């Protein structure tokens, strides 16, 4: 019997954690598959934004313009912003809250995956789903007569900043509140932002001080910035980008600091 460690068929154990980037990539792939398999998540992130875009573009329920083309030009950027909120904030907060309740995160906490790796993996999954959402909603909007303008780079930058901001806030909520409280609060915030985030009701319809406050919220800043670029053909809306950047830094920083595994 050979004792040569280099002999064929002999394996040398290599205990230890995988490189951090490989762990994050594996976690992001797992989170993406879980999001795409979850029926309630798809209802929130895909079906509801698509129905809102189709309904409010076809029916003059809210006064946003005289023609059908003007309605979809107004609505498409806002619905894209709402999709980011639904995926990165509401859906992620609820899913992570229940993972924490059922002990899934506790098991991950005992693994070599660091806390920042979990947050990065979940954010990566959100970005993957968001890419599919954006393609679908853009196709529907184009079929309804949407005529987008502006720089794709500016749009991508706003979407990334919005995703980071909402992801941080969603993970902060899921990592500090009980699952039931997260479920109620996340859905309540989603409904309030739907009507007060500039998605279907123009922010200009609100009184001055209220409008200025709503424009500083993540959904208000994202919908306003996307509309400036995609409808009006403006350059990078730096004020909206700065507001989203501040929310992203505060949200992700607070989530990394206060997120609890159990």
Concise synopsis of the structure shown:
The protein has one domain (21-258). With 262 residues, it is an all-alpha fold.
Describe the structure.
By secondary structure, this protein is an all-alpha fold. It has one domain. Helices cover 74% and strands 0% of the residues. It has helices at residues 20-37, 39-58, 68-101, 104-109, 115-143, 152-176, 179-196, 208-216, 218-230, 238-258. It starts with 19 loop residues before the first helix and ends with a helix. The model has no long low-confidence stretch (mean pLDDT 83).
List keywords for this structure.
262 residues; mainly alpha; 0% strand
Would you report the number of β strands? 0
Percent in strands: under 5%
Secondary-structure element string: HHHHHHHHHH
Output the number of helix runs.
Answer: 10
Mean pLDDT across every amino acid position: 83
Overall form: elongated
N-to-C span: 50 Å
Helix content: over 70%
Radius of gyration: 21 Å
What is the domain tally?
Answer: 1
Write the layout of secondary structure elements.
Blueprint: H1 20-37, H2 39-58, H3 68-101, H4 104-109, H5 115-143, H6 152-176, H7 179-196, H8 208-216, H9 218-230, H10 238-258
